[in-house]
Amino acid sequence: MKKELRVRMFGGFSIQYGEKKLTENVGRTKKVWALVEFLLAHRGKDVSQENLMEALWGDEEFSNPLGTLKNLVYRARKQLNELMPPGETVSFIQFERSTYVWNSLIPCRMDTAEFEALWKKAGDERLAKEERVRLYQAAVALYQGEFLPKSSYMDWVVSKSAYYSTIYNECVLSLCEMLVALHRYDELVVACERAVLHCPLSEDIHQALLYGYYKTGQPSKAIPHYERLRDAFYNELGVELSEATVQLYRTIRRKIHNLEMDLHVIQKDLQESSQCAGAFYCDYDVFRNIYRMLARWILRTGQSIYIALFTFTDRQDELPDSSTIPNVMAVLRSCVCSQLRRGDVVSTYSSTQLVVMLPLSRYEDGLGVLERITRFFMQTYQGDDVKIHTNLRAIEPADSYRDRS
Fold first, then answer.
1. Domains (ranges, CATH) in the chain?
2. 108: part of which helix (H) or strand (E)?
3. What is the pLDDT of residue 273?
4. Would the pTM of this model clear 0.85, i.e. be above it?
């Protein structure tokens, strides 16, 4: 072969020779692709028939497994030769000593191999920082997405995918650290905006992006990005953001307001962006500050305000299975917020608990509200694996804390 094969495995599979390209999207059976992918991913290694059959079919049983494998290899060889000019054939897959191997004499350029080589070279601390940045940038540019996403149902692909994803995350974070040290914040933003598409739940990368927005004077991007990130972590993982990310957000908030003499402008900034129905949902830090303000307000007005706690457990009153918590919490939050008034306040206290502030005149009215919301949740939630527990107490005036101390 005069030219080299170009193989892509990140974000999808394709194999190209000259101007001719074969992709997984055009009329190829999954098993033929799986065979080619496996041999290319293990290029340079002899693969026994048994190991190849296990990788492709797992525990499936066939009356003639070796015959099935040979037929699959025949079909793969035939389709691979579609890359070649008319009249020219190449033995892409070789069979030697009861093992299959990708022909090592065929020049082959693979994105996974280049990616790994760049990562290793960039990790050399003896190189100049600018050179390491260049190498890391080249590495992350090669990562076009998950390793063989259409074959992610196969065990060997899962482990390889996790390996490359870990390397990518390491490359991005190392690149971010160096760009910050070199004060190249525009490049930091570009790198992180791309990286969060591949690692949507990597808080460290999101934190670096927020810092990039901050240093490049883009608070209009930083604030909504933080809010989307906070909601994603809560809805998908059932957890709050780290204190470091929250502190960075607060720093950005403090820096965005210049001197403003028009009270109307300030008032518009304070207002909610839309007229949302139901209770006001906020971070726990905000909830705590509202609580403290109302505790002072009660001291002056004498009005009654109650704080309620919703907790869900499994049927044995234990912590539910971690895989079910995000879904249950999403339903509970929706039920609580939709069933309360706009003047009520709701926040997440833990992964299985919500706290609520209710301006009510009587304790009995509060109990009625909690019972109504619990009934609504049980009607809405599709399952019988959880129980709802509620508690209700009056907010104590601010001076009562001092009296007890």
1. 5-109 (1.10.10.10), 111-254 (1.25.40.10), 280-404 (3.30.70.270)
2. strand 108-110
3. 58
4. no
